[in-house]
Amino acid sequence: TEKDKAPPSPFLSVLSDGWVKYRDDKIVMSTCKMHIFYFPFDIQRCRLSFKSILYTDEQLNICIKGNSTEITKKSLDTIRMQYEWKLLHITTNTTTGNYFGTNQTVIVYTITMERKSALYIVNFLLPVLFFLCLDFASLLMSNNGEKISFKITVLLAVTVMQLILNEILPFTSSRIPLI
After folding, report:
1. Average pLDDT value over all residues in the chain
2. What is the rounded distance in angstroms from the CA atom of residue 134 to the CA atom of residue 141?
3. Helices 126-137 & 144-165, crossing angle to 10 degrees?
4. Which 3 state secondary structure label does DSSP give 37?
5. CB-based contacts of 119: which residues, under 8 Å, 6+ apart?
6. Does the chain have fewer CB atoms within 10 Å around its N or its C terminus?
7. What is the value of pTM for the model shown?
8. CA angle, 58 as apex, 53 and 64 as ends, to 5°?
9. Of 40, 64, 42, 62, the residue nearest 51 (C-alpha)
10. Considering only 38-47, 97-106, 141-150, which range has the smallest mean pLDDT?
């Protein structure tokens, strides 16, 4: 959780049946391992697990409000701009296990997102295909001197484009994208 990012709420709700509600908002920052082998046509699944460290099920009842369809619809209504990603769906799962000798509930949200690939097709794939066509077209040239200079020019253009587009490609040391 990010400390001091969410302002503390000064309000309590006292209900007629004696319950007192206090809203303590937290901002959760999370990272998820991405599988980018099929970039830019990749679909990512990220799991977020929530459980209490201090309290047992008898002391603290955590539960999911709504089903997966309702949560996905509410999330899609809340998100104003999706930029590079499209939220496909959110699934929820609740399990109860015995942790450190006490029963505790774990809520797992699985968020599935798809990368919007149109930007990468226009800025990455089409120029690469264009340079590939130019390279194949150079095979039809008859003069060897012009052919060599044209191939060197195409090679330099591909190298410059690769340097520029290197910032667009996601970085990973374990697996290189197929593209």
Report:
1. 83
2. 11
3. 170
4. coil
5. 40, 84
6. N
7. 0.68
8. 70
9. 62
10. 141-150
